[in-house]
Amino acid sequence: MSKNFSIDALLNNVDHESKTSPMLYVNPLFQTFLHQLQLEQTKTLNQLSHSLTTSDSDEDDNSSVSSINKTTNSSSSARRKRTAFSNEQLIELEAEFQQKKYLSLVERSQIARSLHLSEIQVKIWWQNRRAKWKRIKAGQLRQFSTHCENNKILCPIPVHVKKPFTS
Question: In this structure, what DSSP letter does residue 160 have?
Fold first, then answer.
């Protein structure tokens, strides 16, 4: 009646007395998840193969690549298209950005309403513009520091040596 608890027996799930493998329990939610994942992968592969077989020969390579990317990126939620801001919107956004690098929620809401944009679009634009501003600032700082290194003016710094006081 002794059971084998060796590593090999445990890893191989072998019961040496009965010579049968025990049933493995799999959570039903996990089974559903795996099934949905398989369905999505099959759907994506079908769409991909369909887009490859039905693409017109007149289309350039870029459009077929973008259709492949759209197909592979599409999961349960579709990706939003890139927002093309109008010149008026960009001018207004830039003017506001020059005044303030950070917006409050109220300011963001007011700008979004006045430019007919969503608050998220304004928020993302502000984040991207702030990142660009920081890159430009860092580049200018780097340029300035290399300019200063090349044009160094060396001047001696007086060093005071303490001598023992004698009277």
Answer: P
The three-state secondary structure class of 55 is coil
Q: How far does Cα 28 stand from its chain's mean position?
A: 33
| Per-residue burial over 1-38, b = 16 or more CB atoms within 10 Å of its CB, e = otherwise | eeeeeeeeeeeeebeeeeeeeeeeeeeeeeeeeeeeee
Q: What is the CATH number of domain 85-136?
A: 1.10.10.60
Amino acid at 140: Q
- Could you give the C-alpha distances from 140 to 95, 129, 130, in angstroms and in order? 21, 16, 15
Alpha carbons 123 and 93: distance in angstroms, whole number: 11
Low-confidence ranges of the chain (pLDDT < 70): 1-2, 13-24, 50-76, 147-156, 158-159, 161, 167
List, for residues 64-107, the tens digit of each pLDDT value: 444 445 545 555 578 878 878 999 999 999 999 999 999 999 99
**Cα 109 to Cα 71: distance, rounded to the nearest angstrom:** 34
**Cβ-contact 111, 122 below 8 angstroms:** yes
The whole-angstrom separation of Cα 114 and Cα 18 is 77
